[in-house]
Amino acid sequence: MTHLPESIYVIRQGDMVIRPKYDEYQQTNGTEIIRFDQTRKESPFKVQRIIERSCKFYGNNYISKKAETNRITGISSKPPILLTPLFPTYFFQTYSYRQGEKRRRDIQYIDSLEERQKSIRKVNLVNGDA
């Protein structure tokens, strides 16, 4: 895994999943970024902070992006965030019951969904990760 410098990571094309990282006491300890090329990166910052910083980097803020999504789609809870029209990066917030964590996934890298139990699905990514 590549460790990033103490700056806030900006989401780039090829980032598939952004999820919290935990320490031995099950406390959040930064973020893990899983990329299409199967590399993984770590950041000391929380997932939400990375999303907010990425929105700002691409010329807007998170609140505006969330309001824009709500206006267009009517989705008000856990809306997908389009970071930039330069490359399609729609990050949807999901919750993993198995791991008890919230993740953000880029929809273009989702290959398929497998139903496990009622309202529980396994998300398969295009590079073979799940």
How big is the Rg? 15 Å
| Main sheet: strands, sense, barrel | 7 strands, mixed
Low-confidence residue ranges? none
Strand order of the largest sheet: 1-4-3-2-7-6-5
Coarse morphology: globular
How much strand content do the residues show?
Answer: 35-45%
Total helices: the number is 2
Helix content: 10-25%
Number of domains: 1
- Strand count: 9
What is the overall pLDDT average? Answer: 80
Question: N-to-C SSE series?
Answer: EEEEHHEEEEE
Distance between the termini: 18 Å
Protein name: Competence protein ComK
Organism: Staphylococcus xylosus
InterPro entries: ComK
Account of the protein in words:
This is Competence protein ComK. It comes from Staphylococcus xylosus. InterPro entries: ComK (IPR010461). The protein has one domain (2-125). With 130 residues, it is of the alpha+beta class. The chain starts with a strand and ends in a 5-residue tail after the last strand. The protein contains two helices and nine strands; from the N terminus they run E-E-E-E-H-H-E-E-E-E-E. It has helices spanning 47-57, 62-73, and strands at 2-3, 15-22, 28-35, 40-43, 81-82, 90-96, 101-106, 110-117, 120-125.
Short description:
With 130 residues, this protein is an alpha+beta fold.
